[in-house]
Specification:
It is built from 15 helices and 20 strands. With about 500 residues, it is α/β, with parallel strands linked by helices. The strands form four sheets. Strands 3-2-1-4-5-7-6-8-9 form a nine-stranded mixed sheet. A hairpin with a 2-residue loop joins strand 13 and strand 14. Helix 5 crosses helix 7, helix 7 runs parallel beside helix 8 and helix 11 crosses helix 14. The protein starts with 9 loop residues before the first helix and ends with a helix. The chain binds S-adenosylmethionine (SAM). S-adenosylmethionine binds next to helix 3 and helix 5. The site of S-adenosylmethionine has 21 residues, from helix 3 and helix 5.
Length: about 500
């Protein structure tokens, strides 16, 4: 049975965060559970047409073990998919009866977040929340803004999160019995980034991570639905002590493809001293080598006297002050489109973006005094050659007293001023190196390159960076030349 949500209008699908799991991925997820209890209370929240419940039930039927009964509970808001969900439950019933497993199911066509938060709030009027031994889930993905009903419901039980999928996961682990298991497929975005920090903490405080699986291609898991999220599958157990080791696997996502698997110490996945609790996923050998090198560096941005910030000019807020071309009373305004190899091309009149911003009382607080800055793009994708793309803003090249860096850029500075020239050049080489790129890919699960991500990297010490800067004869180096220069610099500082 193949049911897609393609018949739904696009907006409805987006509103519901509806991306259906392929049977190959569902089967793979069902195979990830550890030993199961004899009677299983199963939860599928945001069940769609029931692909995940069907895969789980089929797995139990084929590989029955001790299981004698399954009680399946599904939550699904989309009325148009309920018939398909009902039909899938009947199919589960049939398979179980053939295998001698008792099967019962309940479909709730209600809002999972609202219904469960009112149970979990635990006041005099709330009903007791249900308990589950197993949950298999592909939750809906959608941003939820601060004042939305979902956000308020989640807040009522102490969960502060900005996406529906993290809200679902936070809710689900509260419904699991101790030792209960969860296999979920979600965007990888929760693994880093400041917005997901409270969620990561909540997740790691209540769930013991046992396995992580990533796909090599962003299109793999939901090809039918053109999802361009990077996805991750995790297996976790309700409990309070992380294991010493965890399995990390990866595959292309194609049917019958090879799955590569490796065991890592948990400390490699979540670094014990990392206050941000980033979840690193080393899925290739380059990632492992990069970690070794980065772990050997003792410097931090603050020890270098350097800060990284997000570009301060939010263009739509200062719209009236923007100019396509420089004119009297304006200063340069830099966007990612001005990146030109290692340096900037400014002005760039063929680009659609403005090149200048008026320098006046309204805009001055968002400008910085001209100087030597290192700029890094804030959005790059997994498919690009490098995730961290840095270039140098050189005041000798772009003459101005003040300059505006737009919000799609991060900029490295020294307490709001430009950087010393050789330090800026050394940072340029280091940040554009393959080592940093590979390290970044271990933990970054989305297209953003946050200032926090750049802040939490380890850095070479000042002398080493300045030494690298001195060696930079030009900003027009090949990747190979950059890597050689950085490798030589790091070797010398050991
Ligand atoms: C990403 S889809 C996954 C569907 C199915 N689990 C699968 O893997 O094929 C998420 C599902 O959650 C449903 N959904 C969205 N918001 C919901 C809510 N608040 N309560 C219950 N279901 C919801 C959507 O209609 C959609 O079918």
């Amino acid at each position: 049975m193949k049911i897609t949500a393609k018949g739904n209008p696009r907006e409805k699908k987006q509103e519901l965060g509806q991306f259906l799991t392929s049977s190959t991925v569902a089967k793979f997820m069902a195979s990830m559970f550890g030993p199961l209890p004899r009677t299983i209370r199963l939860l599928d929240a945001g069940a769609g047409a029931g692909a995940l419940t069907l895969a789980f039930v089929s797995q139990c039927c084929e590989n029955r073990g001790e299981v004698i009964a399954i009680e399946a509970t599904s939550y699904e808001l989309d009325e148009e998919i309920l018939d398909a969900l009902g039909a899938t439950m009947c199919e589960c019933e049939r398979r179980c009866s053939e295998s001698g497993i008792r099967f019962a199911f309940t479909i709730h066509s209600t809002d999972f977040i609202q219904e469960m938060s009112s149970c979990l709030v635990g006041d005099l009027f709330s009903t007791k929340p249900p308990a589950f031994d197993v949950a298999i889930v592909n939750p809906p993905y959608r941003k939820i803004n601060t004042e939305s009903v979902e956000r308020r419901s989640l807040r009522s039980i102490g969960v502060e999160t900005s996406n529906l999928y993290t809200g679902f996961i936070a809710m689900i682990h509260r419904l699991l019995v101790p030792g209960g298991q969860l296999v979920g497929i979600t965007p990888r975005s929760f693994c880093n980034g400041p917005y997901f920090r409270p969620f990561r903490e909540d997740f790691l405080n209540h769930l013991e991570l046992r396995r992580l699986h990533v796909f090599e291609s962003r299109k793999a898991a939901f090809r039918d639905d053109c999802v361009l999220q990077e996805n991750i599958i995790f297996h976790a157990v309700k409990g309070y002590y992380q294991p010493s080791e965890i399995v990390v696997s990866s595959s292309s996502g194609e049917q019958g493809d090879n799955i590569t698997e490796k065991i890592f110490s948990f400390a490699e996945i979540v670094h014990p001293n990392d206050a941000e609790k980033f979840i690193h996923i080393p899925s290739n050998t380059g990632h492992a080598a990069a970690k070794e090198i980065m772990d050997g560096l003792s410097g931090s941005l603050s020890s270098l006297g350097v800060t990284v910030s997000t570009g301060r000019v939010v263009d739509f807020r200062l719209r009236d002050n923007l100019r396509k071309e420089p004119e009297r009373g304006t200063v340069p305004l830099l966007y990612p489109c001005h990146f030109n190899g290692g340096t900037v091309q400014w002005p760039k009149l063929v680009a659609r973006k403005p090149n200048a911003i008026l320098d006046n009382a309204e805009t001055r607080p968002w400008l910085v005094p001209s100087g030597m800055y290192l700029l890094v793009k804030r959005f790059t994708s997994k498919e690009e050659r490098r995730r961290i793309v840095a270039c140098v803003f050189d005041p000798d090249q772009v003459k101005a007293e003040w300059v505006g860096f737009e919000n799609h850029l991060n900029y490295f500075h020294a307490n709001g001023q430009g950087l010393e020239r050789h330090l800026a050049m050394g940072l340029y080489a280091f940040l554009n190196s393959t080592v940093v790129d590979q390290y970044f890919r271990r933990f970054s699960g989305h297209t953003q390159v946050n200032a926090t991500d750049l802040r939490m990297l380890t850095y070479p010490d000042l002398d080493t960076l300045q030494g690298m800067g001195l060696e930079m004869t030009s900003l027009d180096l090949t990747q190979d030349e950059i890597d050689k220069l950085v490798s030589k610099g790091l070797h010398a500082c050991r």
